[in-house]
Design brief:
The protein is α/β, with parallel strands linked by helices. It folds into 2 domains: 46-75 and 341-459, Aspartate Aminotransferase, domain 1 (Alpha-Beta Complex), CATH 3.90.1150; 79-336, Aspartate Aminotransferase, domain 2 (3-Layer(aba) Sandwich), CATH 3.40.640.10. The chain has helices at 4-18, 39-43, 50-58, 77-87, 91-98, 107-121, 140-152, 167-175, 192-204, 230-247, 305-318, 324-336, 338-364, 399-406, 438-459, and strands at 63-64, 135-138, 158-163, 179-186, 189-190, 211-216, 252-256, 282-287, 299-302, 373-374, 382-386, 408-409, 411-412, 428-432. The strands form 3 sheets. Strands 2-9-8-7-6-3-4-5 form an 8-stranded mixed sheet, with helices on both faces. A 4-stranded antiparallel sheet has the order 10-11-14-13, with no helix packed on it. Strands 1-12 form a two-stranded parallel sheet. Strand 6, helix 10 (230-247) and strand 7 form a beta-alpha-beta unit. The chain starts with a helix and ends with a helix.
């Protein structure tokens, strides 16, 4: 193999012979070497909607109903400024916030998180005190999800997910070489009967020992906007505990509550975590990216006892601890009441945008409403749309190019389905009302309606 020194010597020889700078064909050629990527890197697919984001950025006239971002005007500039000012009112406190933190997370923030959990679950103060030691602060809930997959999953292991599910979650599962298996949902969320049948089939196939995790988004799920019904929550926890006994080892439920708090005019049921009697089955994952700021990027998990040490060992290899500055900023916002006031404004903002968007869909899609249906979420940021099976909503299907011509974007629903079992449905769309303004939502619905009329006419 030619070394860097050999290459430089060759360049010098060419310079001496030619009396000047060499042309490109005079330079010595070096061998292109293969990069020995890990199997995990090779099997990890590129992000599924990167091109969508690029298209939106490059075409400012497009109405993007695709990106699941927060409203730019909703970001808490004043709240953050007050928190930072309070942090730096004392030179000593300022220095603390600028120093490294701990792997598990800032103690004051973790205590506040558990106090809030006690209030939202309606239990006496101090009831969950022990859980502070099992609460880890992460760089958004995405890091927690990755750590959980890293701690639990080996190639060939099985994760049961809602059908459809949050497509970003499928990435770490794929990276670990595990199998994501779909379980049907309905208007009440994950179907408990379907979950049991899936577990029975896996057991009969001799694969029960490979089931490690059940993933659910109980509030206003991404992508459907559907919430898990209150009457299904305790039965879900009980079913998984019973199957853990049958498998003679723990099966976990990952409760991804990223949209907790963003409910519009409805009461949120008890968390799955609060319904776990021995605190050993449910992993609670929450995030402040949607309810506060994605730029601050703070999430947290309340872990079963057996997972806290493995997760912290892995997290120590990631970062020694999430950004201490961001944690203390959030702690100030929570303690002052600014955070709660901000979330109240978000509920008003997004609740109105939800109403505007759903009404616009009803108006502009009226001519095709017999063939198209969509969810009416009670919170969160997403609407899930279903069209006839013969209409492929993917990038190569008839609808997406028509939407581009009309100037509107959506996320093809196929990305939200785990690969097993069987073919992935290709007749769904994920829509979001989070980013566009109310006039843009109205216009986006009009453009989508025009594209749908054309695609359905062509399919007919």
């Amino acid at each position: 193999m030619q070394t860097e020194l050999d290459t430089m010597s060759g360049v010098a020889r060419v310079l001496r012979v030619s009396g000047g700078l060499p042309s490109l064909n005079q330079l010595p050629r070096t061998k292109t070497l293969r990069i020995p990527l890990s199997k995990a890197a090779i099997r990890t697919s590129p992000p599924s909607i990167t091109n969508l984001m690029q298209t939106a950025l490059e075409n400012p006239g497009i109405v993007s109903l695709a990106a699941g971002f927060v409203d730019q005007q909703s970001l808490p500039v004043d709240v953050s400024a007050r928190s930072v000012s309070a942090m730096f009112a004392s030179e000593a406190d300022g220095r603390k916030s600028l120093q490294y933190g701990t792997t598990i997370g800032h103690a004051g923030l973790r205590a506040l998180l558990i106090e809030r959990l006690e209030r939202t679950e309606g239990v006496a103060g101090g009831t969950y005190q022990e859980a502070i030691a099992r609460t880890v602060v992460t760089t958004g809930s995405a890091q927690l999800i990755y750590l959980i997959c890293e701690a639990l999953l080996d190639p060939g292991d099985i994760v049961l997910v809602e059908s459809p599910t949050y497509f970003v979650f499928l990435g770490p599962v794929e990276t670990r070489g595990a199998r994501a298996v779909r379980v049907p949902i309905d208007d009440g969320g994950l179907r408990i009967d379907a979950l049991e049948r899936t577990l029975v089939q896996i057991r009969d196939d001799g694969q029960l020992d490979r089931v490690k995790l059940i993933y659910t988004i109980p509030e206003h799920a991404n992508p459907t906007g559907i919430s898990l019904a209150a009457e299904r929550r305790k039965p879900l926890v009980d079913l998984v505990r019973r199957w853990s006994d049958a498998a003679n080892r723990r099966i976990f439920v990952l409760e991804d509550a990223a949209y907790h708090g963003l409910s519009y005019g409805v009461q949120e049921p008890h968390s799955l975590w609060s319904l776990d009697p021995d605190d050993e089955t449910v992993i609670l994952a929450r995030s402040f990216s949607k309810t506060f700021s994605p730029g601050v990027k703070i999430g947290y998990g309340v872990l079963p006892r057996g997972l806290i040490d493995p997760i912290l060992r892995l997290k120590g290899n990631h970062d020694f601890g999430s950004a201490n500055f961001n944690q203390q900023l959030l702690e100030r916002a929570l303690a002052s009441g600014d955070y709660d006031r901000h979330v109240a404004r978000l509920r008003e903002l997004y609740g109105k945008k939800r109403d505007v968007f759903v009404a616009a869909l009803q108006h502009h899609l009226a001519p095709v409403q017999a063939n198209v249906r969509w969810t009416h979420p009670n919170g969160g940021l997403f609407v899930w749309m279903t069209v006839p099976e013969e209409v492929d909503t993917g990038f190569e299907g008839p609808l997406f190019p028509r939407c581009l011509q009309e100037g509107v974007l959506y996320v093809p629903g196929e990305y939200a389905f785990a690969p097993e079992p069987g073919p992935v449905p290709r007749n769904h769309l994920r829509l979001t009302f989070g980013v566009p303004s109310e006039p843009e939502l109205e216009e986006g619905a009009r453009r989508l309606g025009a594209a749908l009329r054309g695609a359905l006419g062509a399919a007919g």
